[in-house]
């Protein structure tokens, strides 16, 4: 396995980096009441005692709060990044200062070092995995089948990862249980919808210093993430076009008042393009050929394959950095197409990207924490495959959040519960 060393051993001024990262983590944690509530429980009950958790995540302040919670619950944690450009080195260094945490995450690594860091995490022999994109789960099944004997289960954070897991399950290749955290209401309805829109659009605006008002924004995909981007863009007085391949989602976008058309047609009208599909080749050569001069191309999906940069590079006579985080591709006819964050997920990979709002990730990471707790305490109850997050865990996190906000809500009476559970009540 890899001999990759923790990040703290790679930095020249590790103390300064750790102090800066500590400030970021503390700020995030102050605004994460769900993780705070779970910390009290985890410290007292030690539900993760004896577990080793291997993680491949976006290593920034909010993720760090989750990692430290898992360590507080008794686990040994090894973590690396799930994207070459989303790690904050100071946060990674701060995590590595914890005796129970080893962080290999480093920003700006090449492909070989990226996968070497995953190998380094796996050298800790994890019993539970927490993934964002499924690269770690894939590495275990592809190269380290011996680990399958001791892994209790895992949790997957994002849409792309769940898609990959379901494909593995269909092929009967997924050999341990994994919770589809992405799909549970407390994650999907808030993180995907609100988080993606609220983080992607401001990051694009800060990266470019350009306004949305009066511009035409093309949102590729109308899943939960696309819905959020479209909604937030409309709220900033942009004209919104949605492209879709699924007929019911296309109809839903139409009924919400958006223009719906194929990407080839939308390419002629858009000023800003944001991909949210989790698929490849969403914007290709045929689209680049008809785009207006000066368009912005951004991706909010997990992998950098939604905008076909290979084709764009072949079309361009040259490219250059025109702003920090913006690469301009000049075509033979003089048009300039501007790619943000190298085509990687813009809200995290951009130099100014901070990811989803803290409060949103508090909910998502609360779900991750209770899923890890469930695997550590009741892992034997789950067969290999993709599992929905148990509804009682999702509700637990929602109730913690409501209590933190001082919000009270109704409860069913015994009569109401009996009515809902009965099939004999008629007119």
What does the secondary structure layout of this molecule look like, with pairings?
Layout: H1 14-30, H2 33-45, E1 52-57, H3 61-72, E2 76-81, H4 89-96, E3 101-103, H5 111-122, E4 128-131, H6 135-143, E5 153-156, H7 159-170, E6 177-180, H8 185-208, E7 216-220, H9 224-235, E8 239-243, H10 247-255, E9 259-260, H11 263-266, E10 272-275, H12 285-288, E11 296-299, H13 309-315, E12 316-323, E13 326-331, E14 336-340, H14 346-349, H15 358-378, E15 385-387, H16 391-404, H17 414-421
Parallel strand pairs: 1-2, 1-4, 2-3, 4-5, 5-6, 6-15, 7-8, 7-10, 8-9, 10-11, 11-14
Antiparallel strand pairs: 12-13, 13-14
In short:
The protein has 427 residues and is of the alpha/beta class.
Largest sheet geometry: 8 strands, mixed
User: What is the global morphology?
Assistant: globular
Strand numbers in spatial order across the main sheet: 9-8-7-10-11-14-13-12
Instruction: Predict the CATH topology of the largest domain.
Output: Rossmann fold
Low-confidence stretches: none
What are the key terms here?
427 residues; alpha/beta; Rossmann fold; 2 domains; eight-stranded mixed sheet; seven-stranded parallel sheet; 15 strands
What does this structure look like?
It is a single chain. With about 425 residues, the protein is an alpha/beta fold. It has two domains: about 5-185 and about 355-405, Rossmann fold (3-Layer(aba) Sandwich), CATH 3.40.50; about 195-350, NAD(P)-binding Rossmann-like Domain (Rossmann fold, 3-Layer(aba) Sandwich). Helix content is about 45%, strand content about 15%. It has 17 helices and 15 strands. It has helices at about 15-30, 35-45, 60-70, 90-95, 110-120, 135-145, 160-170, 185-210, 225-235, 245-255, 265, 285-290, 310-315, 345-350, 360-380, 390-405, 415-420, and strands at about 50-55, 75-80, 100-105, 130, 155, 175-180, 215-220, 240-245, 260, 270-275, 295-300, 315-325, 325-330, 335-340, 385. An eight-stranded mixed beta sheet has the order 9-8-7-10-11-14-13-12. Strands 3-2-1-4-5-6-15 form a seven-stranded parallel beta sheet, sandwiched between helices. The longest helix has 24 residues, at about 185-210. The radius of gyration is 22 Å and the shape is globular. The model has no long low-confidence stretch (mean pLDDT about 95).
